[in-house]
Amino acid sequence: MIRSPRFSRRRLLGLAALQSAAALGLHSVGTARAEARDQDFVPALVVGTGYGAAATALRLGEAGIRTTMLEMGGLWDTAGADGKIFCSMLEPDHRSMWFRDRTETPLATFLWLDVINKDIEPPFAGVLDRVAHPGIDVYLGRGVGGGSLVNGGMAVVPERDYFERILPEVDADEMYGTYFPLANRELGVNHVDPEWFETTEAYRYARVSRAHAHRAGFPTTFVPSVYDFDYMQRETAGEAPRSALDCEVIYGNNYGKRSLDKTYLPAALGTGNVTIESLHRVRSFRPAGAGYAVEVEQIDELGEVRAVKEIRCRHLFLGAGSLGTTELLLRAREQGALPDLDESLGEGWGPNGNVMLGRANHVWDPTGAEQSTMPAMGIDNTADPDHPVFAEIAPIPAGLETWVSLYLAIARTPERARFAFDAATDTARLDWRAEQAAPAETAVRSLFDRINQVNGTVYRHDLFGGTRAFESSFTYHPLGGCVLGRTTDLHGRVRGYDGLYVTDGALIPGSTGVNPFVTITALAERNVARVLAEDVRGN
Ligand code: FAE
């Protein structure tokens, strides 16, 4: 079992750099060696600080290549007036959402009452964004660490046969023998103690759902996590400050979670070659000399543009996520900077078959007032030939008994959408149609109709606005837009342009069948290893 990420001297150096940036109120972080050099040119520029970007920057730094990471969100390491860096879901404030005056949570209502969302001000560079597209909204993390700051920590390796179907040209032996284990190790993936799971109040909700699934003949499985389960045990024992046990997740965890700012990013900083600039939003880029010139807006936490910079680089790695990376490339083509980008750019986008739903339990089946926000179990019905579904058993972190079982189900469907650039709004827009969620809902319904039937339970119709039982109008898992082997070559090199790479979820064609961040990380590790061997070394 992999217990914790490697505590190398390098990572400790990087953590120290992050802490001193916090103490000094800086938005830029790096060790002295990296910061002392020319600021207008770097050999490697990485856009974003999520999974793909972080793995890439670590390997570039280790190879001795001076690298700057540009992140539009903030550096989440300074406590607010309440002594905490992040706010809780029960008392959200301006830190919760990216420039909003009201929260926009996945659950819209409870008993049809508008009691979940709260007014927040001032509009601020908060940690969670919800980006509206026609037919679907996309949740994203904003800040140094990207989605790792807000996600549920579930670290799942996809089933090999499904991975081979999604990315048939990628060597699965290499992925399953080398890069998935490497990603798990660096991310600090760990497993819940099964004995403790059986007794703790924190997972009563998961045990109730497990019993209902088993009664209906469906298998369940433990889900690995990047939340430190030893820490969680100490939380429940009252020996450590609470986070998973204090309703913290989508607006950030103050403790316990091994987000990227605890793992890959300090390791990258500790190489002495990597610098991170937060509140730096990349607007556009163009070929310049033997590399690229990148236009960047430096913003403050209230959204004011404080400076516009041009940074030149030889190698440009796009790790801004499925939406961010695809938008930057589409804008570059629209504006004529990169006219030869492959015509597949924008295609192959999917929401990873996400469908959320709730079930109403009997009064004798309470799910518990004190629920861990970190899911640790899923219903694995992926062997079903007609309706393969993996459904994570999700918490309702309400702080009181609700008798609700909540799930985020992941269905495998071939439905895909395409991004096109909309010059009027200067953004990439998806053409996803709400009806495209129907196959995923059908698959999920087939699983949960059976569970309800056998257990004599019903769906909740009061949670998502209106009366619908299935919520597929948002996704946590945007994937695709610059698909590996189509818009890029088989190692993420953008076709038609030397020195330009995609390194994030945009590479994956719309589905992984499970939660995607381990796959994104492992693929980035694989790609950067090849790029370092063939393109970058010696520059
Ligand atoms: P990502 O992590 O999104 O990072 C992209 C970064 O680029 C962000 O920090 C952006 O702010 C930044 N950026 C974007 N545009 C620009 C620009 N123009 N200039 C500068 N910076 C920019 O990308 N996945 C799991 O596997 N397990 C889970 O339990 C799970 N739970 C989730 C829960 C929630 C609420 C959410 C929102 C997501 C969840 N996910 C989960 C999905 C996972 O976090 C997501 O797939 C990855 O974060 C995507 O990684 P990327 O490297 O593609």
Automatic annotation (TrEMBL):
Domain Glucose-methanol-choline oxidoreductase N-terminal: 141-164
GO molecular function terms attached to this record: cholesterol oxidase activity; flavin adenine dinucleotide binding; steroid Delta-isomerase activity
GO biological process, one term: cholesterol metabolic process
Pfam families in alphabetical order: GMC_oxred_C (PF05199), GMC_oxred_C_1st (PF22500)
Keywords for the protein's UniProt record, in alphabetical order: Cholesterol metabolism, FAD, Flavoprotein, Isomerase, Lipid metabolism, Oxidoreductase, Steroid metabolism, Sterol metabolism
PANTHER family, alphabetized: CHOLESTEROL OXIDASE (PTHR47470), FAD-DEPENDENT OXIDOREDUCTASE 2 FAD BINDING DOMAIN-CONTAINING PROTEIN (PTHR47470:SF1)
Domain of life: Bacteria
Naturally occurring in which organism (per UniProt): Allosaccharopolyspora coralli
Cofactor(s) it depends on: FAD
Family classification: Belongs to the GMC oxidoreductase family.
Name of the protein: Cholesterol oxidase
E.C. number(s) listed in UniProt: 1.1.3.6, 5.3.3.1
Statement: the UniProt record of this protein carries the keyword Flavoprotein: yes
Pathway(s) served: Steroid metabolism; cholesterol degradation
